[in-house]
C-alpha cells in the first residue's frame, strides 16, 4: 500500500547529556541514510507483501471471511493508534535507541507471525509489528532530520527516503508473490527477521544518537482512550460481519457503544490535557483538518481495494500469488510517475484543484471496478481502474501532505506530520472492517436470494458492493476537500519534501 510521508523542516534541540550530531557533517551520513532507508522500506513493504499472502494464510489457518481482514487491520490499527506516542517516545528516549528497539521488536514480532500455528497468534503478532513500526517510523524520520542539517543535502536525503516509500509497495507486491508461490506465505513475515537484525547491527555503528530536550510527559490516558476506542469500533464492525451476529446483536451494539463513549472521552480529555497526545489546535484549523479528513477517508477506501482485489485475482480469476503481484504493478507505477508530475504542478496550480480532480478521478476508478465479473479480462476491467486510481491518488497525496502542515507552529510540525500518517492508517483499519462487513453481508444475501448462481457469483457481487462503498468514501473525501481546503499556492510550506 503506498504511503505518503511529510517531513517538516527543523528538529528539536538536542539534549546536552546525550551524544549529538555536531555542526560538522557526519562523514558516515550517507551510509546512515542507507540503513534508515532499509528500515523504512520494511515498514512500507510489510502491508503490500502480506496482502498477496492473505488468501494462502487464511486457507492454511482456517481464518473465516469475517476475520480475514484482521491480518491487515491488526497491523494498521496498532501502527496508526500508537504512531503519535511512538514519535514522542523516540524523541525523549533517544532516536537511535528507539530505532534499534523498533527494529529488533519488529524482527521478533515478524518471526512470531511467521511461525503462528493459529489465527489468534498471527493477529497478535501483526499487532506487535504495528506497535514496533509506530516506534521505528518516527525515529527514522527524526534521525534523517538530525543527520542531514544542510538544506540541499536534507532535500536529497528525503528524496531518497521518499523514493523508498513510493517504491516499497511495488517491491512488496512482487516479493510477496515470489515468497508465497515458491516458499510459503510464512516467509512474507519471516523475511523481516534477518533484514531487521542486519540493519540494527549496521545502525549501531553508522547512526548517531540524538534526543529532544524540554517537556517529557507522555499522554498515557490519551493513548489508552484512543486505542481502546478504535479497537472497540473496528471489532464492533467485524462482529457485525460474522454469521449469525449482525448489527442488532447485543455484542455488536455494546462494542460500538463503548467505542463511542471512549472516543468522545478522548476528545474531551485532550481539550484539557496539559500534554495532549493530539493537540486539538492542530486539527481544528480548516486546511489541516480537511487534509486529515481526506487522508482518513482515502485510507478507508484504498486499503479495502487492495484486499478485495487480491481475493478477486486469486480466488475468482485463479491468479497465482506472483501473478497477483504483477497485476498490482500498474497501480504502484502510476503512483510513482504521477507523484513526480504532480510535484511539478503543485507550485503552479495550488493544492485544491489537484485534490478535487484527483479524488474525482479516483471515484471513477473505484466505480470502474464494479465492472469485474467471474471471467473478466484484466486489460479491459481492472487495468483502467488501477490507472485512474493511481494517478488520482498521486494528485491527492502530494498536495494534501503540504496542506496538512499549512500554518502550523514549528513546535507542532512533528505532530502535524504524524497525524497525517495516523489518519491514513486508522482510516484503513476502519474502512477494512466496515467494508468487509458489507462484503460478507452482500455475499450471504446473494447466496440466499439466488443460490443457483453459485458462490463465485456471490463473491463478485460482494466485491461490487465493497467497491461502491469505497467510492462513497472517496466521494465524501472529495466534498470535504473541496469545501475545507482553501490554501493558495503561495501559502504552501516552502521546505517540504513529499513522497507518495
From TrEMBL:
Keywords: Cell membrane, Membrane, Transmembrane, Transmembrane helix, Transport. Residues 32-489 form the Major facilitator superfamily (MFS) profile domain. GO terms for cellular component: plasma membrane. Signal peptide: none annotated. Residues 1-24 are annotated as: Disordered. The keyword Transport applies. It is a multi-pass membrane protein. The chain crosses the membrane at residues 30-54, 66-86, 98-117, 123-146, 158-179, 185-206, 218-238, 250-269, 290-313, 325-346, 353-370, 382-406, 426-444, 464-485. PROSITE patterns: MFS, SUGAR_TRANSPORT_1. Pfam families: MFS_1. One of its GO terms (molecular function) is transmembrane transporter activity. Residues 1-19 have a biased composition (Low complexity). It is found in: Cell membrane. PANTHER family: BLR6921 PROTEIN, MAJOR FACILITATOR SUPERFAMILY MULTIDRUG TRANSPORTER MFSC. This is EmrB/QacA subfamily drug resistance transporter. It comes from Blastococcus xanthinilyticus.
